[in-house]
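WARN retry 2 of 3 for item q-0093 after timeout on previous attempt; input resubmitted unchanged.
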Amino acid sequence: MRRKYFQPGWQVLLAVLFLCAAARTTQAQTNKPSGASLAKIIDFQSPGNYYEPPFQQQMKYLVQGAQAQPLANACYLINQLKLTTFQTNGGVEMIIAAADCVLDSKSHVAASPGPLSVRTADGRFFLEGQGFAWVQSESSLNISNRVHTVIHQGLSATNAVPQMAEDMEVFSDHFVYNQKTGQSVYRDNVRVAGTNLTLTAGELSLSLSLPMTNNVITLKGRPTWSSGQRNGGGDVLKFDRVNNSLRATGNSYVKMPGTVMGTNAQAGAAGKSFEVLADNYELRTNGATFIGNVRVTQFAGDQPAGKMNCGVMTVALKPPGEIQWLVAENNVVVEQDDGRFTGATALFTATNSVVQFSGNPTWSKGGRNGSGDGVFVDQARSEMTVRGHARMKLPRGDMKTGAIPQGGMAATADKIVTITSDEYVVKSGRAAFRGHVRIEDAQMQIASDLLTADSLAGGEQIERITAERNVVADLKDSNGTNTHVTADRALYTVSDSFLRLTGSPVVQNEQGTLTGSIIVWDRAYDLLIVRNQKMVFQASGPGEEAFPSFQSKAKK
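OK item q-0093 returned
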């Protein structure tokens, strides 16, 4: 543990570069012959400076040089300057070296166009550069060219998120250290190279003392970071060494391999990558948070394959950078191909590859759309489930039709069919509705416990509708006459417009009632085919004109 009497190494360096001027002045005057000019001092060594009690016997620092040459105007040229600083226990802390150094004892400036190097005894920090100046009045050290810093226990990266680990090198054109503020700033063409991490910026700043104890490193001037196949940037980047976090502020972005919400969310999904743009973000060891105007683009190769917009996105990660779960909030919109999903919140869990939309969620695909209390998209199974107050709307044109006479059902091809239920599941070639199912359009209203709409060829157009359990329907014929139908099961084939009723079917209108074991209604031609028919007419009914024309089938 550092004692309170120990002065941090940078402060020692900056103070000594001035104080050694006074020491050299004293020694030069001591060696000056009477009436003669100032002579060179060979193997120069300052008297040394000691700690305050109780460590008054321990030297703080020692200044040495191959020779000291007195110059005019109270200036001195020191060759092969070496400054050694010590800890209170006598151990060497830091060594500073310069090929040449001119000390101006009047203006309190130490400067040289030559090289300067600083290294710690434990080898964890090394700084070098070309051309330097220490200005005591400003308490600042400036290195003007070719700045290079090596810090062990610096920046690195593990998995998806850059982390603070070992080995960091900083390169820049210029370096400034201010003793008063404790801030060090690297400027112009800044590049930071870690074990698995590279940073670029116009400016990097950090609180610097030796040994390295700074917690936050700040980069400005269009800074960027890269780690393997991952990279990002923003107006400002901040690395927190204590909390192992990276924060980007303003025009921030991240690019990574893999998928955001899909079956292959693992980093390294072949040929897939994604980009996240946001006002700000923070990357941590086990997750990330993106805030403000979040825009996600999924790529397949170089081509966009999907987009998501939201206000806030939170991601949980596990090694080696796989997404465990992801939550998007505030006006979530997901677009992929011709599909679109919206909601207040979207939750993705990698273990089941399901995206859950909640908060008045909606979906749309082509001319179809729907809503419910919750929308669940399972991309692994290419399946969507809508639960709670589930609703679907689709154009009648999505129903595959055959040749239908003028004035028949084809005339309503531009109308919308609405289906409501407790829940429904949509997958390739089939939509299945369950609980309080109801179909409504201009020509029919059907209620049942179960309903399936099938595309026999596995396409988008519906070719068959099956209603089961407590089927109740109100249908209009070509003349607009309403007919009430009940059955245990109803099968409607769209191509031939046949409605097949089984399970105690009953067809009823204001003129009477028709029953049979099986009733087939050709709705295109208003033709009934009935097995085991039984008709009951109202007293005032017109008899055989009360129903569509029919052909009876005798019981076999």
